[in-house]
Amino acid sequence: MSADAERLIQGQGRYVADFRLPGTLHVAFVRSVHAHARVRAIQVDEAARASGVVAVLTAADLPEPIAARAQPGVQLHAAPPPLLARDVVHAIGTPLVAVVADSEAHALDAAQLVHVDEDPLPAVIDPEQAIRPGAPLVHPEFGTNLAFTLTRGGGDVDAAFAAADRIVATRLSIPRIAGVPLEPLGVLAAWEEPAGRLTVWCTTQAPWRVHAAVAGLLNLAESAVRVVSPDVGGGFGVRGPVYAEYLITALAARRLGRPVRWVGTRREDFLVTQSSREAIADAELAATDDGRFLALRARVLANVGAYASSYGPAQRMVSLLTGAYRIPAAAVEVSGVYTNTGLVGAYRGAGRPEASFIVERLVEELASALGIDPIELRRRNFIPPDAFPYPTPLGTTYDSGRYAAALDQAVSLVGYDRVRAEQRRRLSSHAREVLGVGLVSYVEPTGGGWESGRVRVEPDGRIVAVSGSVAHGQGHRTTFAQIVADRLGARFDDVEVREGDTDDALPGIGTFGSRSTALGGGALAVAADEVFSRARQIAAYLLEAAVEDVVARDGKFSIVGVSSRERSTTWQDVAAAATSGRLPAGLPVDLTAETRFDMHGEAFAFGSCAAVVAVDRETGAVRLDRLVIVHDCGTVVNPRLVIAQLHGGLAQGAGEALGEWLRYDQDGQLLTGSFLDYWVPHADDLPAFELGETSTPTPLNALGAKGVGEAGTIGAPGAIAHALADALRPLGARAPDFPFTSERVWKALQGPITDLAAPASPATFPSPDSGPAPSPDRDTAR
Ligand code: MCN
Question: From the CA of 514, how far away is ligand 1's center (Å)?
Fold first, then answer.
């Protein structure tokens, strides 16, 4: 177990709600009960007079919100979420009033006394309806509900479609899902006099974003604001935005000169925290008769909710729609559409799962149309290992990959031929429960932008590694300590990792997009290498040896070819010499190095996922029997943490396929605002995951490391969908859209051509071989 996990599992974590400061005030928010309404009046007098109330804030007390930034070349009608809504609310749960009181109970009681007079307006919640003429406009000032359109493309798409032997098309509807971290949103802010400083502890995975927003809103110098991301009980991308509640709480603390705290309820968390994925995609793939991909077209409509939060997922989607394949021409378009629903943004995968699902579904459709096994079809079209760096027609450059190796290993791990034989047996014996097997191949871009790292050797020889990333369950303290100890030849226990506190850490971007190992770890590796080269010179002087002959291991410097028992020096000795003031001129004395590391590109992790599902023909119940993933994240730093990351992602990916669905009714009321209504998979809904691995290091960082954090959420949904389609195909039924509830599957089974009793055969593809054996040294099953 990693050091991080041990601490957390023993209940020694410190989350926002665990921080207690004397004299703390509490906030309760009054929220809109309508999805779209004009605010006629808000009466707060009674609340202001209630017991324990210290302040009541409405929009009139606040500065204007900071506008969302438009990116060049993107048509964006920016409607930033308000801190507190003023005249109109655009989504249910939008905060209208903040009541600040001396206890949580007083704040909640007083919030009941606020009277909001709202005039409901027509709401629109479905993105397709939202772009139809005459649809209610979420932001009438734009004259449209279209928030933005992103397009990418390259190659002669029209010519390729015209010349194609075969064209397949698909239409997919991907539902909205929630991130549901265990810890709800929370914030504590404290203003200190006479220092004139504001400290904000909050459930964020990007403390520097909160830092910039708080300093900007309150017009404070950057040095007057400290943001701390303590232990965070799950981030999953949905703790990336700067929520209005953080800012209101910070503002109240600044104005009132006292600590102020807000910890959301589960219902508030469902209302406020950004959700993700909802998209409708129309896509086509053109190919030759022998299954060579020629061109891809896709048009995606993504629901962005009521306010522009981020279009990161849309950007990922447009850049990844050609997947792991060599497709010479492509034209894709992703449009974001405003609706009267809550915030939408990144959630583990952020556009990658959608892109993967769309292209992989086309591959399955083509395989079916051509009668070629989908595994063989993938093999024929993968970007080959010698084609990297590979620029796709969507303007994305992949650094390295061996896609067939991962697929072959997944095929062999799942025992494809054996599953098919069992599938046939069940069908021919008219078993009530039928089987299906499905696979996907995926890419997981990791990195993007820069990250910072500092390595400092303390005078006593201990090493402090500071990162601009911030973990919320990923185990950075272990991973980063490993990286630094390894580069320095120091002992793991002598390295302390610090992150998540803007006072301590360097400015950084944060942890999302599976970027921390490649970029944050990459930055620490660069800084550690610099420190090592300086320390080595001092060690060479102390050992009276040539610098090139000095090596370091387990905290000791020694000379190549000479036993360390005979002659060695330690990090303590080197650190003491550096601070002694007695080193000869020319030797380094500064054992601190820091860097901003930019990979100038992204490292593309990749892999294959395979699923086996059992479907009850009579009830439509789907049981996930097997889930296999072979992931390649280049150089693995910590195998156990990689396994943990794969497990978490697979569970969430399976949840997306099997039952998760954040739903609103036609009026924009949230139907799934509690765990009674929003299903997440439990341990007994999931099989024991089966993991394999290949290793294809990236040339873009010193470690060769790529990411893993989102692999399971990218691979699992598609693999399960294909397995379900495979199970239903011999019964003459088509798989429904996600999520695969028994009701939906049962309905699919009632289709006109379903004949439960008829003898059927499974997919009619020639049985594929299991592919070449995985290469012995690097590609191993875990
Ligand atoms: N790792 C490794 N070797 C590699 C790559 C990764 O040992 N080559 C290990 C490291 O321990 C690293 C971890 O895997 O800390 C995840 O690494 P990486 O893929 O770089 O991802 P990040 O650390 O940047 O984490 C972000 C990613 C994302 S985008 C989401 S969303 C997510 C996730 O990680 N949210 C999580 N995993 C999560 N895990 C937990 N427990 N909680 C979340 O909120």
Answer: 6
